[in-house]
Amino acid sequence: MNDVHDSILDEAATPATGKKSRAAVRPQPEPASEHEPTARHELVAMAAYFLAERRSFEPGRELDDWLAAENEVGKQLRQSA
After folding, report:
1. 10/36 Cα distance (integer angstroms)
2. Which pLDDT tens digits describe the chain residue by residue (81 residues)?
3. Alpha helices in the chain (DSSP H)
4. What is the DSSP letter of 42?
5. CB of 69 closer than 8 Å to CB of 77
6. What is the widest separation between alpha-carbon atoms in the chain?
7. What is the pTM of this model?
């Protein structure tokens, strides 16, 4: 699970400048199972946050961030299965 988790954080936390944000080094909760709905929700929420951060939290695109995060998390979980 750590590889998937780290990959999502690395990808989502890399701003357009190519530098990693400090937010990517924060301790993250360790989900019990990568297929557990609560754990998946946490991964999506973190990825959506980092996507919003990358665009300076411009309002009105929260749903776009969430849907993109769901897509990326789903893709990463399928690859790790």
Report:
1. 22
2. 455 555 565 555 555 555 555 454 455 555 545 558 899 999 999 999 999 999 999 999 999 999 999 999 999 989 987
3. 2-13, 37-54, 62-80
4. H
5. no
6. 35
7. 0.60
